[in-house]
């Protein structure tokens, strides 16, 4: 018995010693044999899935949304290559050129120190920089330390990203007419048209404005209002205009000219540097967060390093309201300070210059006036202490003037500006005259009471003062020109007052001006109240006008006073899925009768682009009934409108049509009336697709559309409404962006796949399925994205024509590829998808 126990113990010991020699720590990579997906032993039927074994993706060009430090920057096509020695699952790495890095806001100095390979920047050369490619959502996330980023203002867009647009011809047109029928069979027809053609070539924009007008039996006449060539100069932040234009109105009164002008364009600045905002200075004890509030709202939030700091890129917020600055230190303590703030249009940020330089001939709207040469220079510059200096010079052979002024943010007391202009003038057939003009402007927002002085101004001109335009107008072949229409005083004020919650708002306006020599004067006073409740809106307005027309040879001093009272109420309701309003209005003038009107108005169709209104009115004092009916439709190719109206004196039928068109390298595209800057949408083959956020705009039969309004030097997103895609349209990306320059015809090019959507089962000659994981591409478009074969040889393929050839590949060998020649039978379509089987040879 003892022997048996002893032998058993020896056997256990021997087993342990043996295992200790053969058991060692083992390392092995997970591996999946793709042949297991097939039901045969033919290795040529197994796909090469090595790139997917660890969650990798195929290298190539992907359109991705790029984020820098969690902030979206742009969407771009980026070439991704294989990331050798990948860690953390990043099997693809982006190829970013030095130019692309600069466009993303990475400091040029940092880029120069980087190693590049085949034009690609090595991100590892930036300490603590990294990237992450989120393949599923097609996002490239870049993490870049602040020290390696350009210290640009918020919202800054590099000029390299601006789009000058395409070369094209454009035309805006508008045609309107009416047929009036009065008493005694009197009939009068009128016709008006305006044409605004233009040509874009690179950065140059040629524009023209021509009108035609015909009334009654006359033959009509053509008039050209202006013709000019314009372009931007990014390095100067300016616009260059050659031809017909007007001088800016900020220092001197605006003057029309034909010549050349170079002037600042504030739209080239990011929003955080446009307009006036004070510099906010402070001292942080630690790495701190700075939060700035105005009227209770956060308008700025950022981070600063220890020491003194200055915040220069705060967005302008309008009239005013003191700034409440909070500095949150890293130790939890806080500092608070108040920065008084108010603004006027003339104010500029510290260190910023706004200027214009004009030279040319005076362009009067009266052709009998001489085209006298003149020149003008103005400048507005922001200096410390919330102050702005401004001034200018005007010079012509019979005239010269100098202006100087100062504006100031005076904090709790608002903002004001004061300027003076001295002029020496020699009007035609008159002696030389000297005089001065003084101007005062004020603005203040009282947040405690909700009162806003939008602007209050006063101007006084001495008897010898002539403006440039007043002087040049005397050089006319019109003997009836009067020299007595020169302003003496002008005062104006605009006040808005918000009442308590749900109690609406009131406004007050007042203007008074008088003239030298002939006792002419004008006065206007307006007061109103408005409010709304659950969609119901209403307003009451009162206006008083007092006009003193002065002395004339035909009569004595002629006066005219008028009191006008108006009431408007609008009540919304829905009728058969139509947005509609019931309206009532009443107007009463001391110089005329009282009119009461009731009516209905609304908009219909899915895009609310069919607008209509019907109104019936009655006027006392024997004037009787009146009424009108109006209808307008805004479609993808323009707008049409028509109307009918009547009263005791006439009946009128009117009509109109307007729109725009662009002739470009791909053909002619029609659309609605076009703004200064607009976008050509290109989606070849995707017809009748709606453009989001623009009423009535959709692609034409060729897949093109005109997006009529775009913001220059700003990112504009164009989105195709996927719900309006036809069954044969497939689009992987339905939103594109562009940043057009002023006046550009920018183009966004979508790449829809037009054709059948097919669930195709692919078999080889021997009856076996094309293996799982194989890629299928169109032989005519080999550079396009491939489609992946799933179970049982099935592949979902989009954009297929009725007949063609496909290429399937699942490895590098000759036996691991084949070609499919197919002919689709559209009778087999099920729910928009055609199901078919094809042989791959």
Write the layout of secondary structure elements.
Layout: H1 2-22, E1 60-68, E2 71-82, E3 92-95, H2 98-103, H3 108-112, E4 116-117, E5 120-121, E6 130-134, E7 139-143, E8 168-182, E9 187-201, E10 204-215, E11 221-233, E12 238-246, E13 256-264, E14 280-284, E15 288-294, E16 297-304, E17 307-311, E18 323-328, E19 334-339, E20 353-362, E21 373-383, E22 387-396, E23 399-409, E24 415-425, E25 433-446, E26 451-461, H4 468-472, E27 487-498, E28 505-515, E29 521-533, E30 536-548, E31 559-575, E32 578-589, E33 594-604, E34 610-619, E35 624-635, E36 638-646, E37 650-664, E38 667-671, E39 678-682, E40 704-707, E41 716-719, E42 729-730, E43 735-738, E44 745-749, E45 753-754, E46 756-764, E47 775-778, E48 787-788, E49 794-800, E50 803-809, E51 817-823, E52 829-830, E53 833-840
Parallel strand pairs: 1-7, 39-44, 46-53
Antiparallel strand pairs: 1-2, 2-3, 4-5, 6-7, 8-9, 8-37, 9-10, 10-11, 11-12, 12-13, 13-20, 14-17, 15-16, 15-18, 18-19, 20-21, 21-22, 22-23, 23-24, 24-25, 25-26, 26-27, 27-28, 28-29, 29-30, 30-31, 31-32, 32-33, 33-34, 34-35, 35-36, 36-37, 37-38, 39-40, 41-43, 42-45, 46-49, 47-48, 47-50, 50-51, ...
């Amino acid at each position: 018995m003892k022997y048996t126990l002893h032998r058993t113990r020896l056997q256990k010991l021997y087993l342990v010693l043996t295992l200790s020699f053969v058991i060692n720590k083992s390392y092995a990579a997970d591996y999946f044999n793709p042949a297991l997906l097939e039901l045969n032993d033919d290795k040529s039927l197994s796909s090469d899935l090595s790139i997917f074994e660890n969650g990798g993706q195929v290298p190539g060009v992907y359109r991705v949304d790029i984020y820098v430090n969690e902030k979206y920057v742009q969407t771009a096509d980026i070439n991704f290559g294989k990331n050798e020695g990948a860690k953390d699952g990043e099997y693809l790495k982006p190829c970013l050129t030095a130019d692309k890095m600069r466009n993303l806001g990475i400091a040029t100095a940092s880029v120069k120190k980087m190693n590049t390979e085949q034009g690609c920047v090595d991100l590892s050369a930036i300490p603590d920089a990294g990237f992450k490619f989120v393949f599923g959502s097609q996002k490239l996330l870049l993490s870049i330390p602040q020290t390696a980023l350009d210290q640009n203002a918020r919202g800054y867009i590099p000029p390299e990203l601006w789009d000058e647009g395409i070369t094209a011809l454009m035309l805006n047109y508008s045609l309107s007419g009416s047929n009036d029928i009065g008493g005694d069979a009197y009939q009068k027809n009128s016709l008006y048209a305006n044409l605004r053609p233009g040509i874009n070539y690179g950065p140059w924009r040629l524009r023209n404005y021509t009108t035609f007008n015909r009334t009654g039996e006359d033959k009509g006449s053509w008039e050209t209002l202006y013709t000019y060539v314009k372009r931007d100069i990014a390095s100067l932040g300016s616009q260059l205009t050659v031809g017909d234009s007007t001088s800016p109105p900020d220092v001197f009164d605006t003057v029309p000219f034909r010549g050349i002008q170079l002037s600042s364009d504030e739209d080239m600045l990011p929003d955080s540097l446009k307009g006036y905002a004070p510099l906010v200075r402070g001292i942080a004890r630690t790495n701190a967060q700075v939060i700035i509030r105005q009227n209770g709202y956060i308008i700025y939030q950022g981070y600063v390093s220890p020491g003194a700091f200055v915040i220069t890129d705060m967005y302008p917020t309008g009239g005013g309201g003191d700034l409440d600055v909070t500095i949150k230190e890293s130790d939890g303590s806080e500092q608070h300070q108040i920065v008084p703030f108010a603004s006027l249009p003339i104010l500029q940020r510290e260190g910023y210059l706004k200027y214009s330089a004009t030279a040319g001939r005076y362009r009067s709207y009266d052709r009998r006036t001489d085209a006298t040469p003149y020149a003008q220079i103005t400048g507005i510059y922001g200096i410390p202490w919330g102050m702005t200096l401004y001034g200018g010079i005007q010079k012509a052979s019979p005239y010269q003037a100098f202006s100087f002024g100062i504006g100031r943010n005076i904090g709790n007391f608002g903002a004001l500006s004061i300027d003076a202009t001295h002029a020496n003038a020699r009007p035609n057939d008159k002696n030389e005259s000297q005089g001065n003009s003084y101007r005062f402007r004020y603005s203040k927002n009282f947040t405690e009471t909700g009162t806003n002085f939008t602007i209050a101004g006063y101007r006084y001109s001495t008897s010898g003062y002539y403006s440039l335009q007043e002087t040049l107008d005397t050089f006319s072949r019109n003997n009836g020109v009067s020299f007595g229409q020169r302003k003496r005083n002008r005062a104006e004020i605009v006040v808005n007052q918000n009442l308590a919650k749900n109690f609406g708002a009131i406004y007050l306006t007042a203007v008074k001006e008088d003239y030298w020599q002939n006792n002419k004067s004008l006065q206007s006073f307006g007061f109103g109240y408005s409010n709304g409740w659950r969609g119901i809106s209403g307003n009451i307005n009162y206006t008083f006008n007092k006009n003193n027309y002065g002395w004339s040879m035909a009569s004595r001093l002629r006066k005219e006073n008028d009191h006008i009272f108006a009431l408007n109420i609008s009540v919304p309701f829905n009728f058969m899925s139509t947005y509609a309003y019931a309206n009532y209005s009443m107007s009463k003038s001391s110089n005329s009768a009282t009119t009461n009107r009731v009516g209905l108005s609304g908009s219909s169709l899915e895009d609310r682009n069919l607008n209509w209104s019907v109104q019936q009115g009655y006027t006392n004092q024997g004037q009787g009934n009146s009424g009108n009916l109006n209808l307008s439709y805004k479609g993808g190719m323009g707008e049409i409108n028509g109307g009918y109206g009547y009263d005791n004196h006439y009946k009128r039928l009117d009509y109109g049509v307007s729109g725009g068109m662009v002739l470009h390298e791909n053909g002619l595209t029609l659309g609605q009336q076009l703004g200064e800057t607009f976008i050509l949408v290109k989606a070849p083959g995707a017809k009748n697709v709606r453009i989001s956020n623009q009423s009535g705009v959709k692609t034409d039969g060729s897949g093109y559309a005109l997006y009529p309004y775009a913001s220059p030097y700003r990112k504009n997103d164009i989105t195709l409404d996927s719900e309006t895609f036809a069954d044969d349209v497939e689009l992987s990306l339905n939103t594109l962006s562009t940043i057009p320059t002023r006046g550009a015809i920018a183009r966004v090019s979508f790449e829809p796949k037009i054709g059948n959507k097919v669930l195709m089962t692919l078999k080889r000659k021997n009856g076996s399925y094309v293996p799982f994981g194989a890629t299928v591409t169109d032989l005519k478009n080999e550079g396009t994205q491939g489609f992946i074969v799933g179970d049982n040889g099935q592949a979902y393929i989009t954009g297929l024509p009725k007949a063609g050839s496909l290429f399937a590949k699942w490895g590098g060998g000759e036996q691991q590829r084949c070609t499919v020649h197919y002919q689709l039978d559209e009778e087999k379509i099920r729910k928009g998808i055609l199901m078919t089987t094809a042989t791959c040879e």
